Amino acid sequence: MPTPRSVAVLVGSLRKDSLNRKMALALAGLAPALQMQIVEIGDLPLYNQDLEDASPKPAQWLAFRDRIRPVDAVLFVTPEYNRSVPGVLKNAIDVGSRPYGQSVWIGKPAAIVSVSGGVIGAFGANHHLRQSLVFLDMHPLQQPEMYIGNGPSLFGPDGAIIVESTRQLCERFLRAFEAWIEKVK
Question: Looking at the domain that runs over 5-184, which CATH code has it been given?
Answer without folding.
Answer: 3.40.50.360
